[in-house]
Amino acid sequence: MKIIQPLEIGKYYHIYNRGINSDILFKESSNYEHFLRLYDTHIDPIAETFAWCLMKNHFHFLVRIKDNEEITTEKKIPPSQSFSNLFNAYTKAFNKSYNRHGALFERPFKRKEINYDNYFQNTIVYIHNNPVNHTICEHPLEYPWSSYISSISDKPTNLQRKEVIKIFGDIDNFKYAHQLKRSDSSIETFLGI
SMART domains in the record, alphabetically (predicted)? Predict the structure, then answer.
């Protein structure tokens, strides 16, 4: 049995998961919106978000687990529990809406520590290009359920936009990196996807 490492304070992770048997997680816009509201409630207090993408049957997040003094919840719970609380809250709402019961997400949720600048940058591009790689659209700008648009926007966001753009040097390099045709096999191999 593979031992799942707990999420550690101050570390960066690619968090990803899918529906059980690759079942659909998001059937309509209101599902995506509700999941993101729950994410704000459960994850923003304990983690900084650098990239995200919600697909019909899976999702990706690139986060840094905050240091103890940065965590804004009164009750300190393990970061992994905050993610579990998110998934459980969404599952309850989804099950109620669609008259279903039982688990919705695979368990345990996947996590990969990201500790190399190159992989950090590549993971952001990989996450944003997920809808492109799944032939849903031709450019991440066309997909509404990822952080790509927030990354290049001036609108208020909880996304760590300044840090993301800084990693690429500037916004032009950020956009350029997302346009490059690349094989995602190396990042998928690293991430174990």
Answer: Y1_Tnp
Buried/exposed 21-30: b ≥16 CB within 10 Å, e otherwise: eeeebbeeee
**Is the overall model pTM greater than 0.85, yes or no?**
yes
pLDDT (tens digit, 9 = 90+) per residue, 120-168? 999 999 999 999 989 999 999 999 999 999 999 999 999 999 999 999 9
The architecture CATH gives domain 12-191: 2-Layer Sandwich (3.30)
As a whole number of angstroms, the distance between CA 51 and CA 160 comes to: 8
Asked if residue 112 lies in contact with residue 191, where contact means CB atoms within 8 angstroms, the answer is: yes
- Which DSSP letter does residue 37 get? H
Would you kindly state where each structural domain of the chain is located, as residue ranges?
Answer: 12-191
